[in-house]
Amino acid sequence: MDSTDAVRAGLIPLLPRLRRLARALAGQAADADDLVQTVLERALARAAQWRPDAPLDKWVFAIARNAWRDELRARGRSQNLFVPEAAAAVVDEGASARPADRLALAAALAALPPDHREVVALVLVEGMSYGEAAEVLELPVGTVTSRLARARIALQAHLGKDA
């Protein structure tokens, strides 16, 4: 099996996690769908760059992070990326939380800076360890830890809960 076939076969089981990550990064369902498509295209086009001894999910999540950063740069960082209707998009469609709670959480996530949203998406949504997230984001573990701490404080403040 060549690298393209191996990547193609490995992408299929990663799709739910990739979509969840994209929703956490992008906030809006349509933007997340576009991001997933871009990531899949890039992964397949660059399959020869993947090392079979490296975890495919980390490689694909790094592609997702870079693709989302490219999109943010293209849009311009000062532009408002989230319209009020986007708050209706939830990160986890299977969540049992009340709709109002899901809306509040989606709005709180959307309000985070992109670098904090990335860390939240990888650690809290995807369940990666701090070390794994640091690898994907190409950051020191301490930076991941501090960004996550600041993101948690911001989320708690936005949701009106005590720290």
Automatic annotation (TrEMBL):
Family to which this protein belongs: Belongs to the sigma-70 factor family. ECF subfamily.
Name of the protein in question: RNA polymerase sigma factor
Pfam families in UniProt: PhyR_sigma2, Sigma70_r4_2
PhyR sigma2 domain: residues covered: 13-63
Keywords recorded for this protein, A-Z: Sigma factor, Transcription, Transcription regulation
Record domain RNA polymerase sigma factor 70 region 4 type: where: 103-155
